[in-house]
Prior knowledge:
Blueprint: H1 2-49
Keywords: Membrane, Transmembrane, Transmembrane helix
Transmembrane segments: 6-31
Amino acid sequence: xxxxxxxLMITSALKVSLLTITLTALTFRLLRTTRLETLLNxxxxxxxxx
Length: 50
């Protein structure tokens, strides 16, 4: 009884941590892509301005 509840708690904790890691990675990737896009857009605008 106790052992099963403990294992369930561990598995749920693992799932939560995995979810958090995935979300963080996704947000970082999104931020990086948007930053790259803004940089590219800025450079292209700069080039066209010249």
